[in-house]
Amino acid sequence: MAEIEPRRAELALPLVRRGVDSPGEESVEDSAGCCSLLTFTWVGSLISEGYQREKRRCQAAGAEAEGSEAQFALTETDLLFLRQDDVPRALSQSAHNAWHQVSDEAAQRNRRPSLMRALLRAFGRPYVCAAFFKFTYDSLQMAGPYILKDLLNYLSHCSGQEGPETSECSLGKGMLFVVLILISAGCQTAVLHQYFHRCFRTGMRLNASCISLVYGKSLRIASAGGTEETGEEQRTSGEIVNLMAVDSQRLQDAMTYMHTLWSGPYQITITLIFLHWVVGWSMVAGVMVMLLQIPLVTLVARYIRLAQRQLMTIKDQRIKVTNESFGSIRLLKMYGWEDSFESRLDDIREKELKQLRKYQILNIVSSAMWSTAPILTALATFAVYSAFYGNLTPATAFTAVSLFNVLRFPLTMFPNTITSAVEANVSVKRLEKFLSSPEITGRQNDPMGEAVVLHEAELEWPNRTALLRPMTFTVPAPVQGQSRAHLTVVLGAVGTGKSGLLQALIGDLHPVSGTLKTSGSMAYTPQVAWIRNATVKDNIVFNSRFEEDKHLAVLKACCLLPDLETLPNGDQTEIGEKGVNLSGGQKQRISLARAVYSQADLMLLDDPLSAVDSHVARKLMKMFQSPLLAKSSIILCTHHIHAVHAADQIILLSRGAKDKDSTATGEDADDEMLLQAASTSDDGPAAKVAFCGSLPEFREKFPKLAAGGAREGEEPSLTRQTSEDVGQHFVPSKKGDAGQLVQKEEAQVGSVAADVYSTYIQAAGGWCLAITVLVGVLVGQGLQAVAGGWISYWSDHSKAENPHYISSEVGLIGYSTLSLAAFLGIFITSALFRLTALKAARSFHRRLLGTMLRLPMAFFDTTPLGRVLNRFSKDIYTIDEVLQNILYSYLQVVSAVVCTMAVIATATPWFLVVVLPLLLIYRATQNFYIPASRQLKRIESNLRSPIFSHFSETLDGTALIRAFGQQQIFISENMSRVNRNMRAYYSNFSSNRWLAVRLESFGSLITFCAGSLAVLGRHGISAGVAGLSISYALSITQALNWVVRMAADRETSIVSVERVREYLRLELEPPHHCDSDPPPPWPQYGSIEFQNVFLRYRPELPTVLNGLSLQIKAKEKIGICGRTGAGKSSILNVLLRIVDAESGSVKVDDVDIKTLGLHRLRHSITVIPQDPVLFSGTLRFNLDPLSQCSSDAQLWQALERSHLSEHVARLARDANGASGLESVVQEQGKNFSLGQRQQMCLARALLRQNAILLLDEATSAVDRETDALIQNTIKQEFSDHTVLCIAHRISTIMSSDRVCVLDAGKLAEMGPPLELMEKDSRFAKLAQLDAA
Q1: CB count in 10 Å sphere of residue 165
Q2: What sequence ranges are listed for the domain ABC transporter (predicted)?
Q3: How far is Cα 1105 from Cα 1109, in angstroms, rounded to an integer?
């Protein structure tokens, strides 16, 4: 894509944190010494600070003291700084360079580029370095069993020996073996955690790089996804967010143990070599057992990969629908469609859980196959050894058992690693597919040419649907010294391609033939205003250098000063996502102000006048001719005919059946053309340029159309309005925080409450199930310990002369029985736990969805969509797949440690005396560490939400960002947010390494103590018992490490349940159904009465309705007008109970609406909203999501009456004969123009036979002729209904029975429109401005 540099050099990054990559922010790791690096002491200050603040919190809780969050828990400012080669900017640059290199190489070979190859090229070196540490660790693991064999031979020689001590049985020799075991364990600890640290860093790098690649790619593809040119499936915003939220995360998680793919076979190989040294060729029997399992494991892995791929596809669909549902939650509440969308999401979720169950069963089978491998290998080996080599000695038995324990880890981890590798591979393929998708060609810039040049340019949509037939026109570039902007006005009926033309000019569509060139900097206002979650000022300045005088001039020119006076903090007031706390007119004017402030060479304005009232539209037209825009050329697409009188060039787009360029003259030509413009013609669906010329030529060719824009004798110049001076002395920037809308996400402090675990257990199946699982795990681990004790007893009594002689057959039968019983206990418990955990997954999602759909609109006004999506994506994913594994692993390792301690204490009772102080130190270390770890994970979770929010916001505004040339600024802002999240993750995994080094050191001391006690008691302890004690002590090092690691992971993962439960406890809106709801005929008449209604949207905001009293008779047609922000839409909000009135009452057919269930009320009122919304799916679903229509004829009749049937029929023909009702609607209805979407909303209204109809600017985005057709339809179809119509076009409400004029939330005047026109009324003035 050819990116256009902005004209001005003052573009800055005011919304981006300064210094995130500053060299001054040095990482502690970079300055740490060698010893500190080996022991991770450089992390200690962070962990100590977390512990100290937790202490202060506990003391304050006891004393009931108050204090800030920073006093009692770690905060973002305490996080460790990243190393300079780990900052997102450096990672992004490396990843992009590597991806481009790999893409170029793949293009030469005509193959799809490999993302993994690119990532390895960029970040492979430290990961390869980690392989060296892993190789060293695996090799050192063999030292323990080797030294153990010599130690047990020593103990066997000393056991029962009487008389003087010989050199063969000296204390020094025995202690030498014990010290060697201690040194070996210490070296393994140091090497292992250097390996882990590099693996976690690599995973972090890959995650950040993939987020950067996906974010950058999303700015280079059409809207929210790929194109249909190559036949690829259209990508939605939800799917792209999923690539970032889930797929990049899977890649990060997989890196931790990916080296097991080669180290596992290596460990198995060297273990078998040592087994051969210990048990001879009998180890071949064990090898044969493992070889027989490999084909089965491979087959299961293949099914796991397929199941994972299908699971991710369903997850994409769920996130997409979730994104759509909560992105349009206001519409869902207006229509009362929450239950329908809840059912839709539940159906998708059930498919996901069904696939997840299949996936978990396959994982259980895979784990079972690998878990039986050590048992079957040991049985086969001991059986053959006993048959060919004779008696089993303690040295042989426990060295073999120790080696089998070493073997157990790679055999246990290998299936998990394969699963992770499969998941990562699926994610990599999905990322590759997205990153390889076609990009838009971008603008073709001609720096020295005209602002716009089209020569025989033919346009079509990405799916090959014709858009505009070959056209030719030119827009001159601004010249130095011109007094006003050159204005080109593009007119045309709904669906004639006006918005498509602008998309082509900004580079989103490429001409099929001909040429299209633009020059200079560009500004763009889309038809649906794109508003950021930022202050009014930041939305207008939009990363440019702030100039106060220019800012004030823009606010004044765009008629925003009176609006700012009503906002709590002026232009420092924070605007919610998608402008939730603004009216439609305010959003459109802020969007326009952004373009005006930029003073770009070329301004593309897509119908900015549609959502504003007439006198504001008049002022905006005056602004287009003012010196403020003298350095620009403007292309204005509009339905406002009066705009032609200020135009230097007029372009009329038509879809007429006949070519009227040469034949259409007279006063009927224009009307005929515009009325036929939206209809299908013999010439095909593409529109054409019916006229292109100056205003005098337009007047000559279309006299009637030209006359529609001005009254006879009126000059085309626009006169100054005195109302413009209303906010003349307004100071836009106020101090204070009253304007803050979006609240900071609450971060919990302290340990996770016990009732959070209780909540999860109850959701999974209750305490009976939890106790069953706990007992099952303890029994399984206990049986494993008994099996070890049996080997000890067997080896001590394997000689025939022993009075308690045990034959090889009996020994093998006992060992196999106990081992298989232990395996069955663990396997059954694991299967039970994992499958019932799906019940918790279902429960949490269902409850979260049900709660979120029933929260009041005030919550969504103050909560970013990304924060909501984070709950439904990352947190639900953790509950689905991560938490159950961690909880079960935690139970397993705790049980293993308990059983190990019991075995060692039984073998050497003095061990208890030594181990108790060590356990106290161990516990103190754990308590010292967990406060920091827990809080770091919470901070990381909270810092992930801003990434989601910014990403979702960017996807909605990609076209505008590209038009302004601000891709790099938004990429930098994304990097800033990723940087904050990475610092939390880096701090978290570094602190894990600090803990692991210390715990494994304690484990080594426990092994040292067990060995020392055995050596000290060498004359009174049997070699079998000593072997049992020391071999179990060797295994406890890793077990203790895993206990605390799993405890930390348990707390950090259960935070997802805590975060979901936080939303489950929010206060819900009133019930949807009440026992007092009137029976279905209500409302039979449709009378409405407002009695002294006061309304404010939130307690801290001013009232928007101030004592409104209004009585509307049954079947009366009421028009509601007033300037932007007067409270017009608030009447609809209070009538539908989107927000309940603070005081006063509203009655419908003499029933107070506060006594009704929300759905009973909202299903009884028909609404055509200001912002038309369509959902991805079929046309049928969009018209009738509740499936209330009994036949297709009803749907077609509604489409015909809303003047949309011809377009739908054309869609059916384009879809190769498929029913038009089954036509695909893309995300947010992007394959329909805004006017067509409003016509679709009219069709919905026609299907609902209710006594009351509410229209909120329902025809603001259609031309006047289509407006007249729709108004005629409303007049005919709703003649016996009560109609409340909010409109900016006074002509729209002139046929009303009465007109209500609002001002500052009060009823300014009311009466029949003709009576008000005869007086010097507010309405008469508005009507005069509209007629002009």
Answers
A1: 12
A2: 459-680, 1088-1329
A3: 10
β strands within 989-1098, DSSP E: 1088-1095
pLDDT of residue 495 exceeding 70: yes
Q: Which strand ranges, in their side-by-side order, compose the sheet holding 1306-1311?
A: 1165-1168, 1252-1256, 1282-1286, 1117-1121, 1298-1303, 1306-1311
71-85 burial, b if ≥16 CB within 10 A, otherwise e?
ebbbbeebbbbbeee
Count the Cβ atoms, other than its own, within 10 Å of residue 390.
11
Q: What is the pTM of this model?
A: 0.70
Cis peptide preceding 1083, ω within 30 of 0: yes
Asked if 53 and 74 count as a contact pair (C-beta separation under 8 A), the reply is: yes
Identify the DSSP state of 690. Answer: E
Secondary structure element (H or E) that encloses residue 212, with its range: helix 171-218
Which residues, in sequence order, are CB contacts of 558 under 8 Å at separation 6+? 589, 590, 592, 593, 596, 620, 623
Query: Count of residues for the chain?
Result: 1332
Decide: residue 358, CB within 10 A, 0-12 exposed, 13-18 middle, 19+ buried: middle
Name the residue with tokens 């716009």: 452
Query: Among 836, 877, 891, 866, which residue's Cα sits nearest to residue 1057?
Result: 877
The pLDDT, as a whole number, for residue 656 is 54
Which range, 653-662, 781-790, 798-807, 1113-1122, has the best average confidence (pLDDT)? 1113-1122
Higher pLDDT, 415 or 475: 475
How many CB atoms within 10 Å of residue 974? 26
Which residues have CB under 8 Å from 1014's CB, separation 6+? 151, 155, 908, 1021, 1026, 1029, 1030
Sheet of 513-518: strand order equals: 466-475, 452-460, 513-518
Round to whole Å and give the CA distance between 891 and 899: 12
749 with 69: CB under 8 angstroms?
yes
pLDDT at 352: 93
- Give the tens place of pLDDT for each residue, 81-129: 998 888 999 999 999 999 999 988 888 888 888 888 999 899 888 888 9
Other CB atoms within 10 A of residue 1284 CB: 25
pLDDT tens for each residue of 1213-1272: 655 545 677 888 877 777 777 778 878 888 888 888 788 888 877 666 566 666 677 777
Separation of alpha carbons 1096 and 1099, rounded Å: 7
pLDDT per position as a tens digit, 1180-1192: 888 888 777 777 8
Among left, alpha and beta (phi > 0; psi -120 to 50; other), residue 734 is beta
